[in-house]
Structure formats: structure tokens, C-alpha cells
Amino acid sequence: MDIKRILILGGGTAGWLAANHLGKALEHRQDVTITLVESPDIPIIGVGEGTVPAIRQSLKRFGISESEFIRRCDVTFKQSIKFVNWMDKDRHGAGNFYHHLFDMPSPLGEDLTQHWLDNTNTAYGDMVSPQHKVCEAGRAPKRITHSEYEGALGYAYHLNAAKFAKLLAENAIRRFNVEHIMANVQEVTLRENGEIASLETDCRGSIGADFFIDCSGFESLLIDKTLKVPFVDKSHQLFADKAIAVQVPIDENEAIPPYTLATAHQAGWIWDIALTHRRGVGFVYSSKYMDDDTALNKLSRYLGQDIAQYQYRVLPMKLGYRREFLHKNCLSLGLAQGFLEPLEATSILLTDFAAGFVANRMPKDSEALALLSEQFNQVMTYAWERVVEFIKMHYCLSDRSDAPFWVDNRDSETIPSELATRLKLWQNHYPIRQDFFSKFEVFDLENYLYVLYGMHYPTAPQVAAKDRREAWQAQARQIASVGEHLMKELPEHRELLEKIAVYGLQKC
Fold it and tell me: Which residues are part of the catalytic machinery?
């Protein structure tokens, strides 16, 4: 059977990212139609308001103006995740922190990790990247004279998820002729071979297709309720299974941090994301170690005001992923594919990765689809497992012993075996590029370096020749000098956003 009709179930970020990826990849195929069916009665989750740098390439590929994106989606720049209190306060000080920066470490020459291991009195990020100083100074990653999607430093975005979905929708409809149908699905019809044949809707009747994409969120109407693809539970490794999400206003003159703030507490952590007119704050916790009332009280204490005055949501988080992501003629994306706590903007990251992977390999018929399914499921299982390991590493490296949550996260029975093997290897030698041999590592060498040594992982120092040590020292001084220069040259974060609102950025 030829694949000419593609149907996406569900809007939101996942559905419209998929529509844009497919629209772009198939814009030369006049025989292919793409339809997105969205319920008028189901709001998007809208919690994931942070991204990673890879999203810039996707937006540029879709033909979306960065200036328009920033103006319309309340965008702020994200250069880092600043982790606060993830280490023991008695050993590392109250308010201890480190940055997981978005610029590459050691950009001026050799990897400075060995030099840092010999000189751990300086924060790792501060030694290996000028971006550390820029973040702490509250500066933007670029100037108004930079071209769209270009900058002096690496960056991603914070954004209003609902407005982002609307912008993606408009782009897919206008640029790629995606058909948009507002309807509620009442029934799913299957073919004799178990594939999906059509969706039966309340106002548009039966809508058939050759290939379906499930972006129906936690409901997982197609991949779970219809096709019964099993779920791989990861709650034995990642304990945080609830989040309280709230939006609070900020003063229009208040400084905007150019990073996500991730503050640890006794049973999880708090995300704090500043947009131009409000903060999105989420209290992530484990229901095994903290009850809902305690969580609400602690979030109120963090905000310095009673959370009851705002609308908030308590979100259960079922942690894990589908055993198959592409099953028969159905691809799952977004929350329908799986969910891990939003520690590293994982949902949008994996959705963007998976949608791009399939769009660029979109099969023309059922035979090619079967071949793609096997490869895609292997790739995505590998990717999800590596993300689980990367998130778990943040917890099991912590030396906090003030609460059972942190102690239990170091239990070897809860640490994935591949992560345990890597950590043993890195006790003797810091990570190198060859340790990340797959092209499908969602988090790569630089991500691990920032977290490992931001959290003071005890890798044994190696003996180095005097000339190398001198070269490292010179390089570290140069990075520090660049950081001082950028602190003075780059604009204050809110100042740049206000200029973009008026003038826009230079076109590519």
C-alpha cells in the first residue's frame, strides 16, 4: 500500500512540530497530503516551556523568522540550566550551584578538564567557558546586530508553549498546506491486519489515512488505547512522579535570568523559567517521599507568597516510554511516546529529534515502513535509555544526605547499568569523544562534562608534562579574558529582547 495520506492526531507542540517537519521534508511530493486533527475541547499541557539549542536548526529549517518567534511567543533566551543546592550545603556551601552551559566547553583549544581536575578551586563551567560569566552577569547571548539564529554564544529559548503551538500551526498551514480539522475522535477503526484505517469524529465523519501520528498527549489514544503497545516503566530509576505547575507575574522592569533555574529540595527540585511578563514555576517531587500538602507549602515558601491565589495544576508524571514508538502504521510523538521529568527539556527535545528522523526518511509504501519501523524503534529505545541515564546522573552524583530521597538515589540497584559502567570508567579518566560513539546520543560529551564536574565527580587527576600544563593555564586565562570582554560587550537580557520587539534581528 502506498503512503499518500498522513494524519496527525493532536495539536500542541508535538503535533505541530511533526506537521512542520513532515511538511518541509515532503514539500516536493505533490501526491502526499498531511492532515492534523485537533480536539476543540482538550487544552494543551503547556508545561514544557524550555528548549535545547537544537530547536534553532528546526525553526530555521521551517522558515520561521526568529524575530517573529521571539515577539509572538514571549520568548527569552536560555543559555544554561543553573542547578542550585544539588550538593551538600555543609561541604559545598548553602546556595551552591553549577551551570550546565549551552556553549561548547574549552572552545579555544585542548580540553581543559584535566587542568580543572588539578585546580578544582574554580567552578568547572567558569574555567572552560566564557558563558559562565555572561550568565551570572545576566547578559544575552547575542547582539541586535547578529543575524537570526546566530549569536556570540550557544543558546536555546524559554517560551509560551500555547503561543508556540499557534505559531507552528500557522506556519504549517500557510507554508506546507497542512489541513487543520477541529473535531473530537469518537472511535478508531482498524483494518483486518490490525493497522489503523480511520478516525470516526463527531463533526467531520470518518477521516481515513495511510499513516497516523499519535500526538494525543497522555491520553495516547492510538498507540496505547487502540494498538495496546506496552509501556516501559522507569519509576524504579527516576523517583520524581508529580509536579505542581503555576504561573506568577513579574514586573516589566525586572531582570530576566538568561537560564533555567533548577533548585533542589528534599524530595526533588523546582524549575523556574522567566518569560517577559511572567515566571513558569514547577515543583517536581516524589510522592513516595513527600505528600501533596507539604509540596504546596514548600512551593508557597519558595515563591514568597501563597500559591492559593493563583491557578495551579498538580500533574502526575508516568515516567517511561513505549516499547515500540512506530507500530504498524502509527508513530507516537510527544507525551504519547513517553515522558521523563522535564529536567533537561526532554519532551520537546525527543519530539523534535524523532519527528525529524521520520520525516526525512518517510517511507513511500508499507514495505518500506516495516523496514523503517525496526530501525526507528532501535534508535529511539537507545535515545530514551540514554536520556534516562543522563537524568539519573544528576541525582546519583549528589552527595546530599539530608533526606531519604537523595540517599536512595545513590542505591546501586536504582542506577542503570550502562550509567554505572560509564561512571566507573570516568573515575580513572575524564570522558572523551570516543565514549559517545553513537550518532543518536541525545546528550553528548559536553553535556556530561558540565554535569559531572559541576557536581565535583572524583575523577583521578593524571600526570601531565610541564609544557601542557603551561598551555592549559594560558588557555584558561584567555577564556577568562573572553568572558570579561563579553560581559561588557553583550547587552543585558531584557534590553536585547526589547530591542528585538522594536527592530527585529538581521535576516539570515
Answer: 78
